[in-house]
Design brief:
Layout (H helix, E strand, L loop, with lengths): L5 E4 L6 E5 L4 H18 L4 H17 L1 H12 L3 H25 L3 E2 L6 E8 L2 E5 L7 H12 L3 E5 L5 H13 L7 E4 L6 H6 L3 E7 L2 H13 L4 E4 L4 E5 L5 H13 L9 E7 H16 L19 H16 L3 E4 L14 E4 L6 H4 L6 E7 L2 H9 L6 E5 L3 H7 L7 E4 L18 E2 L4 H6 L2 E8 L13
Parallel strand pairs: 5-6, 5-8, 6-7, 8-9, 10-11, 10-15, 11-14, 13-14, 15-16
Antiparallel strand pairs: 1-2, 3-4, 4-18, 9-17, 12-13
Length: 469
């Protein structure tokens, strides 16, 4: 019986970049054994030593930026300048945790009736990471530096369309001097995940991906009582109130919806605008989107590259078609150019209502739905009328009003007068069907630790112990 190969395809040209045989069960077993041994040694290394390896990883990322950015752009179509920024952000995350992580993991004294007591943050062991293709380096580096600094090992099952990026990430940690196998990349399809989750040597898992896949993997992890972090789908609201700086909000909306060619869980997708400024905002927004250059992602004038797969484009075309049939107005874009490559012209739809496909479903590509609201309260109600709760943006010149509205918005993050983005200094994650658990910040580094309470009573002679005879 033949084994299905893992294929890397350039979405801009549809050229096959490479074919890889998936790891066999014996190879996976050997990799897990090696990773287990490496993690056992790593956890006893002083945290200052672990931090130094993170700094070395940052240096490797920067020294190899051009090659890594090229890999990203070739495998999933990200415009080259954005790919370079992704490499830099991954290096920043390593440096951030190298500098601040040791304090986050330090023992915390707690005053109790004991002679002394404290909280300790200890590693769990091996963390399985099931990662997506849309930010092939950054998604992995959101979890790896804090998890490794905390003393864990890592096993990566990356998306099957970015195998060259997956192998390069393991090489980065190896070049940083980490023990062999501490960070292990497995080339495997989805069918390998249940066995990995069930393996007793895997102690926790993190997954970034679709809500449907997240629910399946969460059920597997729950069956084995393993902690997990899930960062899943999003249909992020971008709320524009009547008192907002409309030109600034419209310009930001263009970036929010088309960054990474629109293929981001936290990109603005539903643009909820007060009626009083809806025409002005939509006109400026659509003009900005229409002016974007779509094309070869290695051309630095191009803002929107190809979508990562043909199936994503087909889904977007279908969502646009169904929404227009239901009464939405297609203002710009929404079509596929002729020729090779999985290209799609960014679309803005107006007069969208919450039940239409482009508002009710996650649009994983450059399709923007403009939904009109009567007032600020109505805008928040529309924003919350979704099964997702990852990020949200709120645009207003009244910061006192913003302070009142932010607690009412159901999301893991709210950015006021800014674009939602991940940042090593802030926790990242969602609620509802966008998942649970947190990456980044102090919460991210403690996510895969045993939060251990230590209580030390006064020294006693054995005969005085209350349980002694």
């Amino acid at each position: 019986m033949s084994v299905r190969q893992i294929t890397s395809v350039n979405p801009a040209t549809e050229e096959v970049l490479g074919r890889f045989d998936p790891h066999t069960p014996d190879q996976i077993e050997a990799a897990l054994a090696r990773a287990t041994g490496a993690a056992a040694r790593w956890r006893s290394a002083p945290i200052e030593v672990r931090a130094e390896h993170l700094r070395r990883a940052a240096a490797v990322l920067r020294a190899d930026r051009d090659r890594l950015a090229t890999l990203i752009t070739e495998e999933m179509g990200k415009p080259i300048a954005e790919a370079e920024a992704e490499v830099e952000k991954s290096a920043w995350c390593c440096e951030y945790y190298a500098e601040h992580g040791p304090a986050m993991l330090a023992r915390e004294p707690v005053e109790t009736a004991a002679a002394r007591s404290h909280i300790a943050y200890e590693p769990l062991g091996l963390v399985l990471a099931v990662m997506p293709w849309n930010f092939p380096l950054w998604q992995v580096f959101r979890f790896a530096p804090p998890a490794l600094l905390a003393g864990n090992g890592a096993v990566l099952k990356h998306a099957s369309n970015v195998p060259r990026c997956a192998l390069a990430i393991a090489e980065i940690w190896e070049r940083a001097g980490c023990p062999a196998g501490l960070f292990t990349t497995l080339l495997a399809g989805p069918d390998a995940v249940p066995g990995l989750v069930a393996d007793d040597r895997v102690h926790a898992l993190t997954l970034t991906g679709s809500t449907e896949v997240g629910a399946q993997v969460a059920a597997m992890a729950a069956a084995h009582l393993k902690p997990q972090v899930l960062e899943l789908g999003g249909s992020d609201p971008f709320i524009v109130l009547a008192d907002a700086d409309i030109p600034a909000a419209a310009a930001a909306a263009v970036t929010a919806r088309t960054l990474n060619s629109g293929q981001s869980c936290i990109s603005g997708k539903r643009f909820i605008v007060e009626d009083a400024v809806a025409e002005e905002f939509t006109e400026a927004f659509a003009a900005g989107v229409a002016a974007l250059t779509v094309g070869n992602p290695f051309d630095r004038d191009v803002r929107v590259g190809p979508l990562a797969r043909a199936s994503i484009r087909a889904d977007l075309l279908d969502q646009v078609r169904r929404s227009v049939s239901a009464g939405a107005r297609l203002v710009t874009g929404g079509t596929a150019p002729e020729g090779r490559g999985f290209y799609f012209r960014p679309a803005v739809l107006d007069n969208v209502t919450p039940e239409m496909a482009v508002a009710a479903e996650e649009t994983f590509g450059p399709v923007a739905a403009v939904v009109r609201a009567k007032d600020a309260s109505d805008a928040v109600a529309v924003a919350n009328a979704t099964e997702f709760g990852l990020g949200a943006a709120l645009w207003t010149s009244d910061l006192d009003l913003a302070d009142l509205l932010v607690p009412q918005i159901a999301a893991g993050a709210v950015f006021v007068n800014g674009i939602v983005a991940s940042d090593p200094r802030l926790p990242f994650g969602g609620i509802k069907r966008s998942g649970y658990g947190r990456e980044l910040g102090v919460f991210g580094i403690r996510q895969f630790t045993n939060v251990k309470s230590v209580w030390v009573g006064p020294a006693r002679n054995g005969q005085d112990h209350p349980l002694s005879e």
